[in-house]
Amino acid sequence: MVELVRPLALVRDVPIRVSADSDNRVTLPDQSTGKPKIDRMVMLKLTWFGTLIHRIAIVPDDKLTTWRTVFDTLLASGMSAFKQRRA
C-alpha cells in the first residue's frame, strides 16, 4: 500500500496516467538534508512522505522542503526523540 501512496502524494493524477499507459513510471525523489546523521535521526525517507501527505490536506499545493520535515518530526516527537531507549 505504501508504494501506491508515495507516488500519489507527488503526482495526483497517477491513476489516470497508469490507466492510459501501463508502462508509466513515477520517479520518487531521494530526499536528503545533506547531513546523513540528521536524515537517519528523523528517518527522513519515511517521514518526508508522511509530512507531505499531512500538509496536502492543509495546503494542497504546498512545496515541502526536507528541513521542514525535520522540524515537524522533531516537534511531533518532543524531547522523547533525544532520550536513549536502550542501554
What can you tell me about this protein's structure?
- 56% of the residues lie in helices and 0% in strands.
- It has helices spanning 2-10, 14-20, 36-41, 44-58, 66-77.
- It has 5 helices and no strands.
- It has one domain (2-82).
- The mean pLDDT is 76.
- It is mainly alpha-helical and 87 residues long.
- It is elongated, with a radius of gyration of 15 Å.
Task: Write a brief caption for the model.
The chain is 56% helix and 0% strand.
Q: Secondary-structure map with pairings?
A:
Elements: H1 2-10, H2 14-20, H3 36-41, H4 44-58, H5 66-77
Helix pairs in contact: 4-5
Ranges where pLDDT stays below 50 over 5 or more residues in a row are none
- Provide a count of the helices: 5
Strand content: under 5%
Mean pLDDT score, rounded? Answer: 76
Q: Based on DSSP secondary structure assignment, what is the total number of beta strands?
A: 0
Rounded Rg: 15 Å
User: Helicity level, as a percent range?
Assistant: 55-70%
Task: Based on Cα principal axes, name the global outline.
Answer: elongated
Compute the separation of the termini in Å.
35 Å
Taken in chain order, the helices and strands follow as: HHHHH
Class of secondary structure makeup = mainly alpha
Biggest sheet features: none
Number of domains: 1
Keywords:
0% strand; 5 helices; mainly alpha; 87 residues; single chain
